[in-house]
Design brief:
By secondary structure, this protein is mainly α. The protein has helices spanning about 5, 20-45, 50-60, 80-95, 95-105, 115-150, 165-180, 185-190, 200-205, 205-220, 225-250, 255-260. The chain contains 12 helices and no strands. Helix 5 (about 95-105) packs antiparallel against helix 6 (about 115-150). Residues about 1-5 and about 260-264 have low confidence and may be disordered.
């Protein structure tokens, strides 16, 4: 007698494509990504321009410098390269929806319906959370950290940070806070893929708090303000991730899982 589970047709049957065709599709989508970033960079170069973008990025630091102090360039080409790097970074973030759409369109044909219900919300939410983390770092953390650092500067020292060093610091902080705000996504993925159960995630809560403060101490400057500003949101977002994981597991089950869950 035939097994009904094996007789059930696979919704992905017949959708396989040759490897060369996959490579061609990947090439085409990468070209679209490059074009999108290039268009975004062109628009930003016209308005507001690389110099204005740099001034916006440097505003939190400049606001805390002593009167008459400013950032300096210790390299001959730094006044050109640093604004250009900031322009490309801003262009990538502006084109990020197009980038994520191309990634989604490339992998979607190989996913089941219940998997598509999981991937698209995670892509959108992870993007939003990354932007929220960067915005939180720029609008809140930078101002507090720079004020704290300047309060310790001796009167005999004239603060004149180098623009390349400042750009490196900003990028590392943006990356740290952007990735830290992805904690709910990591929790949801671990729970949905049955790598870790919801109950184990709840039991790990105390260890995660310690882990959050250790990570904050490593990736942020050695000041209490930035460490607390990173560790506390991570702990809150961990709880949000546990709550979101329960919802995702309920609404993204495969049809066979739903049938099993409905059995007495």
């Amino acid at each position: 007698m035939s097994d009904p589970t094996t007789d059930k047709p696979d919704e992905l049957a017949g959708t396989e494509q040759p490897f060369v065709q996959h490579l061609m599709e990947l090439r085409d989508r990468m070209i679209r990504v490059v074009i999108a970033i290039g268009v975004a960079a062109g628009l930003l170069a016209i308005w507001p321009g690389p110099a204005v973008l740099f001034d916006l990025l440097a505003a939190p630091l400049v606001a805390t410098l002593p009167a008459g102090a400013s950032l300096i360039a210790t390299s001959v080409i730094s006044p050109f390269l640093v604004p250009l790097k900031i322009l490309l970074m801003a262009a990538f973030m502006l084109a990020l929806p197009v980038v994520l759409y191309q990634v989604w369109a490339f992998v979607a044909p190989g996913l089941y319906t219940h998997e598509k219900k999981l991937v698209m919300p995670l892509v959108v939410s992870s993007t939003l959370l990354f932007f929220v983390g960067v915005a939180f770092c720029y609008f809140f953390v930078f101002g507090q950290v720079f004020k704290f650092i300047q309060s310790f500067a001796p009167k005999s020292i004239v603060a004149a940070p180098d623009i390349e060093a400042y750009l490196g610091f900003v990028l590392s902080m943006f990356l740290a806070f952007g990735m830290a705000f992805e904690v709910p996504i990591a929790v949801v993925v671990l729970a949905r893929m049955n790598i870790v159960s919801i109950e184990k995630l709840k039991n790990f809560r105390g260890y995660f708090i310690v882990l959050a403060f250790v990570v904050a101490a490593i990736v942020t400057p050695p000041d209490v303000v930035s460490q607390l500003a990173l560790a506390i949101p991570m702990c809150i977002l961990y709880e949000v991730g546990i709550w979101a994981a329960q919802i995702f597991i309920k609404h993204t089950q495969a049809p066979d899982d739903d049938a099993e869950a409905a059995k007495p």
